[in-house]
Amino acid sequence: MSAMPSPVLSQPHAYDRISVAPIAGALGAEISGVDISRPIDDATFSEIRRAWLENLVIFFRGQTLDDDALIAFGRRFAPLFRHPNLLTEGRYPDIVRIRRMPGDTQIVGEDWHADTTCMAEPPCGAVLYGAEVPPYGGDTLFANGYRAYEALSEGMKAMLSRMTAVHSDITVAGPQAARNRHRTNKVREDSQWRETVSEHPVVRTHPETGRKTLFVNKSYTQRFSGMTDEESAPLLGFLLQHAARPEFTCRFRWETGSVAVWDNRCTLHIAANDVWKFQRLMHRVQMCGDRPV
Ligand code: SIN
Which residue puts its alpha carbon closest to atom 4 of ligand 1? Predict the structure, then answer.
């Protein structure tokens, strides 16, 4: 039996400039009292950043973010990260349009994942804006990596603390992944595409909070370093299933004008592939992160 997780959101902090309302026991909070499409003063932004670090994913409702406003808001967190595989449209190469059309049977992000962990320095986070949201379906779920780590036994924690894992984009991009056939969102499948591979600790320490978090995900983590895929599968499978236990998650129901900002260093997320007959359009920027340690 695994150890009980310790509470994550310790003492509630006071916020003077925004309101912060948790949406689940594990992670996630809705922020109100700020229009993020306009320039945000430093004191207000520092509360938004604190709410992000404390709640791991924050949400805003009723926002109107054009491309310039989305870019400006993302840049408040960190310089923007340019996605190596997802094809972008138009004048804004930093913005990925996550588009789902009726008839698509596959979508971007339909497995539990942290973004782009094939990179040596994966993004620290992302801002996702709901531009066209279906009347129902298409929720996004998030999972708290701190809680997943803290719930493990001391023996498992000790073993994982000595392990690293190989992260690759081999199953999510490139011609061999064959991702483009069943979905509108296209990734690179050209012959110039090359696999990106990085090794990361299985347990990383968050560079800002100092907390330990489980750092494996289904889309990118192939195996543990020094082991075969087959040798890795039982433990990796356990960790992936454990990380998405319902009590570590929250579920966000989108409205047009909703915004989610997640901390990619200590969360996983998944897009529910249940939009069926509707279309869904999200605009996303990612922010640069550092090398996991
Ligand atoms: C993603 O994985 O970044 C996309 C999430 C979503 O479309 O809900």
Answer: 109
Supply 79's token pair.
């310089």
Q: Is 269 a catalytic residue?
A: yes
> What is the secondary structure of 141-196 as a DSSP string?
EEEEHHHHHHTS-HHHHHHHTT-EEEEE-TTTSSGGG--STT-SS-B--STT----
Residue numbers of the domain that contains 107: 19-287
Query: Which residue's CA is the nearest one to ligand 1's atom 7?
Result: 271
Tell me, what's the pLDDT at 90?
79
Entry pTM:
0.94
Strand partners, 168: 197
- Enclosing H/E stretch for 197: strand 197-201
Residue 141 in domain: yes
Ligand 1 atom 3: residue of nearest CA? 109
Amino acid identity, position 219: S
What CATH number is attached to the domain comprising 139?
Answer: 3.60.130.10
Segments of the chain scoring below 50 in pLDDT: 1-10
Asked whether residue 55 is domain-assigned, the answer is: yes
Ligand 1 contact via 108 beta carbon (within 6 Å): yes
**Catalytic option among 183, 269, 280, 283:** 269
The alpha carbon of residue 100 and the mean position of all alpha carbons in its chain are separated, in whole angstroms, by 18
Number of domains in the chain: 1
Distance 125 CA to ligand 1 centre (A): 12
User: Which of the listed residues 104, 140, 142 should we mutate to test ligand 1's pocket, taking the one with most ligand atoms within 8 A of CB?
Assistant: 140
